Amino acid sequence: MNIAIGCDHRGIELKQSIISMLAAAGHKCRDCGAFSTDPVDYPDIARVVGEAVIQDKFDYGILICNTGIGMSMAANKIKGIRAALCYDEFTAYRARLHNDANIVALGTITDENTILQILAKFLHTEFEGGRHQKRLDKMAQMENQR
Asked: Which of 15, 51, 96, 119 allows an S-S link to 125, with CB 3.0 to 4.6 Å?
């Protein structure tokens, strides 16, 4: 898989750990920043990752900030992005299975073992389709009404 990953200044260490783990598993990652612990505005990073995913250059995106909340909110402003804040395996599973999430937002406040479980579940769960597709279509209509 090709994965775009980005973080704010609080997520540098976790981002590097995730990139190493994904590379070891054979995935390709694009590091979309931040690149230092100097303060950065998370919407800027969310935009870069979101646009990379929506332009079909990457299968999925990963966004990291202290809680994951701001990143998920910012990414969801991009047409076609379905970013899900996931804090355990179940939320990651349902984000993909029912919502076809294309970005997972993570918080550095979550322990790293749980983060690895979230990523494994998110990256290896297929969208179920069926009755859920109708709901995605309705969300897409909402985006077009802006």
From this structure: 96
